[in-house]
What does this fold into?
Amino acid sequence: MYKRVLLKLSGEALSGKEKNFDPAVLHNLAVEIKEARDLGIEIAIVLGGGNFIRGKTVADIGIDRVQGDYMGMLATIINALAVSASLEGVGVHTRVQTSIDMPKVAEPFIQRRAVRHLEKGRVVIFGGGTGSPYFTTDTTAALRASEIKADVILMAKNGVDGVYSADPKIDPNAVRFEHLTYMDLLNRGLQVMDTTATSMCMDNNIELMVFNMNEPGNIVKAMKGEKIGTIINREENE
It folds into this structure.
């Protein structure tokens, strides 16, 4: 069982069949996180904002990329507040920390304060990305996991049960990997994380698990260390 985990969720994973949020998805997510927290696992969360907006997308319609990225950061904070409210609704104490100062909404990100919250059993939700444009929420996950010394990044995918050699929806011969190294990701060009996030995880020796969050119970299984997806780490024999 992992002691401290960072759960990475895409914004789209929260939307289900709805446009922005699916209440059932938020509730089920909160229940599973509570179950894992009750086992004594310390949990931090990083969220994407793709259910609202993506910086690269707005750049394509003429909005400056920097401004678009800041719009995306604000979307991740909306998602952080939504997940926080769902967790509080099932009795889990949370703290939202943001890389963009907004004291009436959330705490600023302070590494030592985040670690202390985790030690007290609170779920810490990081919003606002890294606070700088041109960085993805994958990089945010790698950065925050490094800062809080997480044992693993759990990358919860929407309907995808691991890393494949090709897109399994397109290529029927695609093979699912049980284990990869970070160099495998870079050398094979596998689109799991961006190269900045991949390099940061490799440099800081942080394990990564890619799994399907849509299967009931999978979030708890992943946090307990069960091998339900693809494991990625630095060494071949780990």
About this structure: The chain has one domain: 4-159+209-227.
